[in-house]
Structure formats: structure tokens, C-alpha cells
Amino acid sequence: MASKLIAPSILAADFANLQRDIEMINNSDADWFHIDIMDGVFVPNISFGMPVLRDIAKHATKTIDVHLMIIDPDRYIKTFADLGSNILTVHYEACTHLHRTLQAIKDEGMKAGVAINPHTSVNALEDIIHDIDLVCVMSVNPGFGGQSFIENTYKKVEKLREMIDSNGSNTLIEVDGGVTDKNAKIFIDKGADVLVAGSHVFKSENPTKTIKRLKEIVGM
Ligand code: DX5
Ligand code: ZN
């Protein structure tokens, strides 16, 4: 079985010590950088934008997984490719022509992800699953770090695993929001491949150790 991945979310980092936190991830057992971009319209919060991502990409030595919580993401696909994104995830709820958007992301040389809000059924992805490299299952309402996860996400991950396997697709399942050492193993057992963890990592006493522990829990 392919190894399971941990993606610390930069949203919970110390922005006055960003380079330190990036180096911490570079030197840790983490697999990806998870970057949350919020526009204050699709979600009721604004995180950070292009200049910050550009500087993160300068220092990061691991895959950059960008989660766009913005309306009409098509406007910025090329920009995010140029900034160094490796995976670009758009929200199902923010795309009128999702198929076209995914093709545009791939045309720019990135992997294409689709995030679904807690209220969106995984069934909505059935006819497009073959075109998706990664499904980001939101286990909280997007917009803020530090929330507790919604229990129903377990069922959604399970259903999605079944759908992906029965379609013979190799789409990755990512879980985003409220991931801790208490639920990480359960998400993996339900079929997740990638776990995003923000507060649990950065608000811990020793983030490097916390990442190591998460990797051990999910099986290196
Ligand atoms: C929420 C973001 C998440 C968030 C996760 O809108 O998409 O990636 O940073 O943070 P925690 O792990 O603190 O829930
Ligand atoms: Zn995210």
C-alpha cells in the first residue's frame, strides 16, 4: 500500500517567523506543505495571497498543495502555477464548469484537486472522479483553523474510497480540518491518503515531534 501523507497547514504557522516554520517542515517527516488561500467571499475569512505563497515556495523543499477557498478560481490558475503550486485544489461549490477548470489546472502542469464542503455529498463527484487527482474532504466548514472535526466525515471518506476503488481510479483522498493524533488513524482506516494538520502541529510544544508522531500513527 502506498505510504500515507501528512500535510501541515501553514495557516497555523507563525507568520512573523515563517521561514523558521518552513524550515521546520522541510526538516521534518512531513510530506507536503498545505497552503490555504481564502478570499473573504467564498469563506468568511481572508488568509494570505500571492506574495506570501511566492516566498513560501522559495524556501519549501516539498510538494506545495494549494487549497483555494475562493470564488471563480479559473481567474488565477496560471498565477498559482507560476507561483510554484504543485497541486491546485478548487472547491466544488465554487466552480460552474468543474471539468473545464480541472483541465485548465492540468494544462498548467499541476495536479488537480477538488474540495467538498461538509454539506456536499461525495456522490456529486461520481461522474468526474477519473479527472480528479485529489479529493479534499472538508472535515470542518472551511474558513478557519482550530475547529473540531465533523464526525460524519468518516462516512464520507468511506463512501469516497468505495467510489474511487470501484472506478479503478487512483485519486487521492485528503482530509482537511480538525485532524489530530486521536482521529488520524481512523481517517486512514476509512480510506484517506493525506491528512492536513494545522493547529495540532503548530500549537503543539514540539511541532517536529508532533509530525513524526502523526507519521508513525498513519504508518510511515
Ligand atoms: C480550513 C483550512 C484547513 C485548516 C486546517 O479552512 O482549509 O486547511 O488550515 O487547520 P486545523 O488543522 O487547525 O483544523
Ligand atoms: Zn485547507
TrEMBL record:
Its EC number is 5.1.3.1. It comes from the Bacteria. Pathway: Carbohydrate degradation. Substrate binds at residues 9, 67, 143-146, 176-178, 198-199. One of its GO terms (molecular function) is D-ribulose-phosphate 3-epimerase activity. The keyword Isomerase applies. A divalent metal cation binds at residues 34, 36, 67, 176. The keyword Nucleotidyltransferase does not apply. It catalyses: D-ribulose 5-phosphate = D-xylulose 5-phosphate. Binds 1 divalent metal cation per subunit. Pfam families: Ribul_P_3_epim. Signal peptide: none annotated. Keywords: Carbohydrate metabolism, Isomerase, Metal-binding. Belongs to the ribulose-phosphate 3-epimerase family. Catalyzes the reversible epimerization of D-ribulose 5-phosphate to D-xylulose 5-phosphate. This is Ribulose-phosphate 3-epimerase. The gene is rpe.
